[in-house]
Amino acid sequence: MKNPLSAWAATAQSDILHGKNVGELQFGEFRVDIVQSHNSLWAICEWPGGGRVAFRPVFTWGAVIETSDVKQTSPDQVDIRISCALGEFRCTITFAESMQFPTFRYTTSFISKEDLFVPFSPRDVLPLPGTGLISNSKGEIHVSQEGTRSGHLYFSLSKPFEGSVFYFQNLTALSEYCDATETSVGGSVGGSWPETGFSLPPTVKKPIPAGRRFIISDAFVLPSVEVPKSKEAGCRNYLDYLASVYLLLPKPETVYNDWPKIAKKGLSDLGRNKGCWTQAEGHSYLNAYVCDYDTPPEIMVQLAVLVPLTEYFEWRGGKPDAVRDDLRNGLPAFYDEKLKVVRRWLPSLVHRLDESEEQKKEGVMDSWYLHHPLMNLARLAIKKDKMAEKIILDSIAFPMKVAKHFNYEWPVFYNLDTLDVVKAETAEGKGGEKDVPGAYAHLMLEMRDLTGDDLYFREAITSLKKLEGLGFEIFYQANNTAFSAATLLRVYKETGEQKYLDLSYACIACLFRNMQIWEGHYGLSKNYSRFLSVYPLAEAPYIAAYEEVEVYAALVFYLQEAESIDLAPSVRLLVAEFIRYFVFRMPFYYPTVLPQEVLSDEVKTGEIDKDLWIPLEDLRDGWEKSGQVGQEVYGAAGAGFGVMPRQYHKLGDSGMMLFCDYPVHGLRIYQDGQVTFRVQGDKRLTCRIRIIGESLSDIRLSANKNELASKSDGKDWREFEANGETTYRLEWSRSNKAKTKNGQPKSRRPKHSS
Questions:
Q1: Do 617 and 546 form a contact (C-beta atoms < 8 A)?
Q2: pLDDT digits (tens, 9 = 90+) for 9-31
Q3: How many C-beta neighbours within 10 Å does residue 199 have?
Q4: Fewest beta carbons less than 10 Å away: which of 90, 111, 458, 578?
Q5: What number of other Cβ atoms are within 10 A of residue 323's Cβ?
Q6: Rg (CA), the chain
């Protein structure tokens, strides 16, 4: 059956056939022929076996090319200048090699002769049969852009030849174009077979202004002879290709954020602001959103703050404050003696539910929501919290019964009392919450850790079978998928079975597929960074504070667990980079650091207090105002306190702390004023190491006996730029010496909650 084509695609094959070859690049087994037709410039990539895919760096929107100047400035680069009635295009096509994969890049800019509306641009990638028609080709699109996520495209061909293409549009480069024309790059990379690739955002509100040069495309293309033989293999290939291109991408600079101060302000505001709390039956409960007094308290909200708050106090030392005690003391009221499980809503206030949404009905349970509070109770129980231990032990039989009832395949909503399905699928034919089997398995492993009973491990194995063969379809909600990745890695380490590591990589691939690996310097989003941010749901239109926090915590734990295994280099690189950028950009969720014009005038739930160190739920693209959902109380502790025990490391009794925006493992403190530690990540990329304390003039940081120069010095800190995947030695004078017992080194590992 033929594929339907647009008019632009239908004429492209003939245009290329009658075009003029004006240049050539050879790289590895591949060749790129540069062909000029009457209104386009094509880069025709040829596979070793003769198959071809056409990429279109320049399209003149129908105007005839009047003049062109092509210069091959080196064996690896061709520069082209094209003029037409509309203006001038400049294009550079280059070859680059990163990791083991050959890659070529084309960057195109345009300057218009007059203010110009461009209502449509065809997509820029087409398979090109040697004989026959484009419409007869066969291929499968594995990944394409969803909303404002990365401008990526991964597809494989089966006819007229076998091969794959990983395509990545650097959407950051289009920021000036979008800002001038009030457009968004959301949904700009995708299409349907055989017309795929990038389409320039159409100008509707404002034209392209005359006389200004704008980049209108910046594409990286990685061709491959390999076709994935399974969905898990496709996920692994995607990660390797993405990491390879990531090394070539321009990336935003990061700055250091004073997280100790942020955590202190967040704790103060959380405790003192009445808009965060509801009183019921002599106990204080956190609202989900600031000033949301209408919705009854939720068990997830209490525990989402209590667990990272507990970690923070463990790291800080000293006694917990009243906020932690209030949260802990209110937990037993959520337990239902009849069902023998904690309920979502506080039973004494459940009559407040307005039934405005499916889940805001008494008895309706969201599948992932059943397990989430139980995970956190188990984490507290493992920390020797006897109250949490009693609640989780009394509750755990219920989710096991429900898992068996649904055969470990979870609907979206069901009735907690009857187990009747309320909503089976996310969309017709899409199935239910497909990553919940991994979250459930995560809970089972925690129960095994708590009790020592292998029954829970066997239950986890049974549940994880439901993830097999899903590939990129695993993802339902980002934090669940991150928990699943960590769980699968643990099971791989215990069993040695490769399939669990492969499934773990599939979960990581799902997370990165749902990230935004570009920076939107246009509209209101110029005021904050969203680079390497993860979206909470597969079709969510914004990034969300709490889900990002949980993904961050899970991925820190993931790298910690992976320290002893031969983890894929692409996974180490990408996960470490996500953590680094999370630590940099997370403060942008706080309205205190945003200009007033960014904040939404209308709020779905509660109110926004701009002076409150409580994060917004949502940061949005372009001209959309942020905070439309509300100011997220349950994201407060995770954002402020989750970073402290993971990125800040106390150096014994020296009074100093080590901050690193990559994860640090194996930190050892010696009595003679020395510390050794290993930084995760990739050697080809760098991270920030900051030593915080007093009298730091004699601090020395070295790797392989080579001392690093300070990048910058402050009154009570010194900072270094360091490579990932490297062991470092930190030394200081005896006046700052760390004290140890019996001359033995101290060891310290990052705490985790995942």
A1: yes
A2: 989 988 998 999 999 998 888 99
A3: 18
A4: 458
A5: 23
A6: 27
**616: amino acid identity, one letter:** L
Residues forming a β-bridge with 362? none
Tokens of 710: 């300070």
Tell me the C-alpha distance between 68 and 1, whole Å: 39
| 372 vs 554: CA distance, rounded Å | 13
Respond yes or no on whether the N-terminal peptide bond of residue 160 is cis (omega within 30° of 0). Answer: yes
Sheet containing 657-660: give its strands across.
648-650, 657-660, 686-692, 717-723, 712-713
- C-alpha span between 647 and 189 (Å, rounded): 35
The pair phi, psi for residue 405, each rounded to 5°, is -60, -40
Say if CB 631 and CB 616 are below 8 A apart: yes
Pair 662, 718: CB distance under 8 Å: no
> Any idea what the Cα angle at residue 477 is, between residues 563 and 410, rounded to 5°?
105
Cβ atoms of 598 and 527 within 8 Å: the answer is yes
Residue 659 β-bridge partners:
648, 690
574 Cα distance to chain centroid: 10
Angstrom distance (rounded) from CA 515 to CA 498: 26
Q: Is 665 helix (H, G, I), strand (E, B) or coil?
A: strand
Token code pair at residue 99 = 């990791």
DSSP lists the bridge partners of residue 155 as: 141, 165
Beta-bridge mates of residue 24: 33
Residue spans of the chain under pLDDT 50: 736-754
Which residues contact residue 258 at a Cβ distance below 8 angstroms, ignoring those fewer than 6 apart? none
Query: How many other CB atoms sit within 10 Å of the CB of residue 572?
Result: 20
Q: Which two tokens stand for residue 616?
A: 């917004």
In the prediction, which pLDDT does 212 show?
A: 98
- Structure tokens belonging to residue 192: 């349907």
Query: For residue 390, what is the enclosing H or E element?
Result: helix 386-395
User: What tokens appear for 248 in the block?
Assistant: 């070539």
pLDDT of residue 97: 63
* Residue 566 confidence (pLDDT): 96
- Gap between the Cα atoms of 30 and 164, Å rounded: 13
Cβ atoms 99, 244 nearer than 8 A: yes
**Residue appearing with tokens 């609202």:** 287
